[in-house]
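Posting for a labmate who doesn't have an account.
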Amino acid sequence: GASYVTSLSWQWTPYANGNFSEVVQICYSGKYSTVIGGCRTYPARQGTTQDFNGLDASGTFWVRHTLVGGSYPAVSSTADRISVVYQ
């Protein structure tokens, strides 16, 4: 049977491209889906949330950075991380 999310933790690193605004969201797309949705904004660089509880754990989670200002191309120095606990 399907597995469902019971907790999600994240850790993200800001872009150092001189931007003056950076909004970071965690989004979700269902299994076999190409639609990215259900985005929620998380200002803290790390944390844990139950916002995604009950979603199919075989879907895909995305960390989306929206930058305003700064130099481009903006290159991240490290990888963001998402950990999903499911049952």
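Reply:
Got it, the structure tokens are right above this. Residues 23 and 66 are 5 Å apart (CA to CA).
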